[in-house]
Amino acid sequence: MSSAKITYSYREITRGARIRPLEPFVKEVVLKKGVQETHGYVVATLNNIELSGRGDIVYIDVGQEEGIVPGNTFSIYKLPRRAFDPDAGGEVVIPGALLGKLVVLNVQKEAATGIIIESARQIERGDVVRLDL
Q: Counting beta carbons within 10 angstroms of the beta carbon of residue 12, is it exposed (0 to 12), middle (13 to 18) or buried (19 or more)?
């Protein structure tokens, strides 16, 4: 367990909020194509919100080790899933769908911070990200 003293806040802070080092503010990002096929997952969101959309900050589980750099773009997908269909009398597969896109703002060794630039539907932890080549 760790503790910290809050000396300045940009927003309200709620009980249970996580702390992490302050990231530098990114004013401009030059878009860059990816060089190799890479995929990962949305693992967290800024302020721990459950559903994200355009303009929200998310964290993904790929980073410098996979060759990710600021400016890379990722497509965000919902994984296919099984559901019970009473009309069919059994389980059916609901296909995955493209949910949106994000641009990487900051990269660490095993993770990256991105901003969602397009969203057709809500995005949540566990959604798949695939590097745009």
A: exposed
115 touches 102 (CB < 8 A): yes
Q: What is the pLDDT of residue 62?
A: 97
Q: Is the dihedral of CA 75, 79, 85, 90 positive or negative?
A: positive
Spatial distance between the Cα atoms of 54 and 12, rounded to a whole number of angstroms: 21
The conformational region for residue 50 under phi > 0 = left, psi -120 to 50 = alpha, else beta, is: alpha
Q: What pTM does this model have? A: 0.76
If DSSP codes are grouped into helix, strand and coil, which group holds residue 65?
helix
Q: What is the distance, to the nearest Å, from the Cα of residue 79 to the centroid of all Cα atoms in its chain?
A: 14
Span 11-43, pLDDT tens digits: 777 887 777 777 666 678 889 999 899 999 999
